Amino acid sequence: MKLLAMDTSTLVMGVAVFDLETKRVLGEVITNLHNNHSVRLMPTIEQLLTELDLSLDDLHALAVTSGPGSYTGIRIGVTTAKTMAWARELPLYSESSLTVLAMNGIRFDGLVVPLFDARRRRVYSGVFAAKDGEMTEVLPQQVVPVESWLEQIKALEKPVLFLGDDVERFRQTIEEYLGERASFGIGPENLPRPSHLAWAAYQKWSNHEPPEHADFAPNYLQLTEAEANWLKKHGKEEGENG
Amino acid sequence: MNMQRETLILGIETSCDETSAAVVRGGTELLSNVISSQMDVHRKFGGVVPEVASRRHVERITIIVQKALEEAGVGRNELDAVAVTQGPGLVGALLIGVSAAKALAFSLGKPLVPVHHIAGHIYANHLIKPLSFPLVALVVSGGHTELIYMKGHNQFERLGKTRDDAAGEAFDKVARLMKLPYPGGPQIDRLALEGKPSYPLPRAWLESDSLDFSFSGLKSAVLNLVHNANQRKEEIHYADLAASFQDAVLDVLVEKAMLAVKKTGVNQLLLAGGVSANSGLRVRLSKRCKEEKIDLRIPPLELCTDNAAMIAAAGTYQFLDGHYADLTLNADANLPLIG
Ligand SMILES: Nc1ncnc2c1ncn2[C@@H]1O[C@H](COP(=O)(O)OP(=O)(O)OP(=O)(O)O)[C@@H](O)[C@H]1O
Ligand SMILES: [Mg+2]
Q1: Whole-angstrom Cα distance, residue B94 to residue B91?
Q2: Does A38 sit within 8 Å of B95, measured CB to CB?
């Protein structure tokens, strides 16, 4: 009884196989490349299964990150995972890519803040804290201007661990706001691990949580630009009329 | 031959704003063709927004594939192969179909067959009546205007193509100029029926004997006409303008298609792509082909626009020729039909 987990939400592509009975991670592949996930995801899955001497029949569940991150990347993972789930009649579990990254800080005593650059001085982020071996949300995941985000984090008055390769871009600003209270993940802690995704999915599976349906869609955390602009314009017109 | 009768191919198409999956048997028999159109989603933006399209595709894809097999009454393990549009199209949209097809092929242990979108449009005709070679195909869609010569299955030779805008693109741009809602092609078609081609507009014949097309001059001429009329505060008769524009496009399309048929000496002319829904084009080509005793094939309206059945049909012959892709297959927004 194995679970296959895949994550293509960011530059990091991760694939892991987890044993649902022994609760052991059997294998994990991570790359951190600006390279096409579309080309490499399926061959990586195939290769990992082959190396572990597993066939598709050994799989009992699947897991995928639902975003946020790169729109195209997330869709490659979600489409692949839910198609496999349907074709093999397997339950599919999803987890936020921020939660998966936050799990690297599960032993940290304080707040854990994973983040991905969302451009224009904004970040995809959330504030987490470890509780009973799980990451729980202290502030909800959102796309937010980095300064106002740091303002909110500062108000929590706790030590904070920042995680993710993109943190480096905001390091100076973070230190300006939080000073000594901020600490930063080291290289390996900054990559989301697919085995953590597998672990999160294993917990859902063992708690008999309902799996995702065929219409499962990513959680981008924000509207498309076209929709946002349309709403802005539309809202304005309504305001003018009223 | 026997094998061909039995072949069961699942087709997947997500190159633009239609999420579609279909099952075709023996290359010609349409068992299902499920199409989820996003037209309503994009209308308020005045055109297809790629990111919006991709988001809708990912949401719908699995359900559509499931429906296609259900409606066909075919079990997923009975399939011989999974065919998918590799390109051309919107890359983010194509990626959904390609990712799904790869996952499906891997999960079911079936061959993965990449298909060119325009080959698909041509093979739409094959679902009605088998193609008879050699033939010439006039491909007119939102992104293409081409004359293709085919000696046999999977053999595509280009006789000519547009040097600038595609015919469908010209329809859509002119429609926008006339403030018609998206998509403009059908709107102009409808309006043209009520008007007379009274505005003089240019036809780009290019070099005598050329089988290439050009529509950007025509588009500019319409733009100037509208602009000048506005400046002089003259009223434009939109139905007449639509009729004049359509006439100019059709003159060139029909004459070049007939020239291609003559030059190659074939007996069959195929019409393919979204613009083949145009009623004027259908009438005029039918008339000319009847006069010249050419066997004209026009797909029914529901097979003119993007659909997965045409991809499954074209994919059948790629499959029979052993043109498989491995799991590294990627979407290609600019995939050429002729390599
Ligand atoms: N009745 C019609 N008259 C003229 N044009 C039409 C008609 N119906 C549809 N079209 C045009 O056909 C085009 C859509 O066709 P289709 O869906 O095949 O193109 P596409 O998929 O966008 O492009 P491509 O197939 O080249 O990638 C649009 O430009 C549309 O305006
Ligand atoms: Mg098309």
Answers
A1: 5
A2: yes
Q: In A, residues 199-238, which contact B (CB 8 Å cutoff)?
A: 214-218, 220, 224-227, 230
- Ligand 2 centroid – CA B336 distance (Å): 14
User: Domain holding B228: CATH number?
Assistant: 3.30.420.40
Confidence at A209, pLDDT banded by 50, 70, 90: very high
Residue numbers of the domain that contains A145: 98-190
User: Does B117 lie in the same domain as B192?
Assistant: no
DSSP per-residue letters across A43-97: HHHHHHHHHTT--GGGEEEEEEE--SS-HHHHHHHHHHHHHHHHHHT--EEEE-H
Distance CA A207, CA B73 (A): 36
Is the pLDDT score of A242 beyond 50?
Answer: no
- Look up the pTM and report it: 0.94
3-state class (DSSP) for residue B172: helix
pLDDT digits (tens, 9 = 90+) for A159-175: 999 999 999 999 999 99
- Complex ipTM, two decimals? 0.95
DSSP state at residue A180: G
What's the rounded mean pLDDT across residues B50-60? 97
Place of tokens 């304005």: A236
> How many domains does chain B contain in total?
2
Cβ(A68)–Cβ(A10) under 8 Å?
Answer: no
Evaluate if residue B3 carries a pLDDT over 70. no
Q: Which domain holds residue B70?
A: 3-125+304-320
Number of domain units in chain A: 2
Residue located via tokens 């068992």: B31
Do B46 and B105 lie in one domain? The reply is yes
Cα separation, A102 vs A124, in Å, equals: 12
Nearest to B247 by CA among B191, B308, B173, B304: B191
CA distance B176 to chain A (A): 18
Which ligand 1 atom sits closest to the C-alpha of B304?
18
